[in-house]
Amino acid sequence: MKHCLVVDDSSVIRKVARRILEDMGFSIREAEDGAQALTFCDEQMPDAILLDWNMPVMDGLQFLQQLRSSPGGASPKVVFCTTENDAGQIARALRAGADEYIMKPFDRDIMEAKFNEAGLI
Fold first, then answer.
1. Which are the contacts of 98, defined by CB distance < 8 A and separation ≥ 6?
2. What is the reported pTM?
3. Which domains does the chain have, with CATH numbers?
4. CA–CA separation, 40 and 3 (whole Å)
5. For the chain, percent helix, then strand, then coil, each to nearest 5?
6. What is the pLDDT of residues 1-42, one digit of tens each?
7. C-alpha angle 70/71/72, rounded to 5°?
8. Which of 114, 121, 103 is closest to 23 using CA atoms?
């Protein structure tokens, strides 16, 4: 079973994402900010990360930059999931190492399509 880390400061978004991803066959771990997510990645590197951009403590972009420079941090597929819709922001996320980008609100069809494009399902 593939493991996905869902990183979002909204418990509602984490719950919705968990439900969809578990139905897609993933085991899930949740983090509410980038700092907590990095700690979890140090413990066990996930196969995939669903990542919010705007979070307290450490935002998604800072997390992604630190993840990609850490041992084993190049391997997880990272799907940004955010309300940031500016083309410059999207390009910034992709340059930092994101594999895919999903806009909130999302549904199962969108998530399946993006995780499929990232080679996760």
1. 51, 64, 78, 79, 80
2. 0.95
3. 2-50+68-107 (3.40.50.2300)
4. 12
5. 45, 20, 35
6. 899 999 999 999 999 999 999 999 999 999 999 999 999 999
7. 110
8. 121
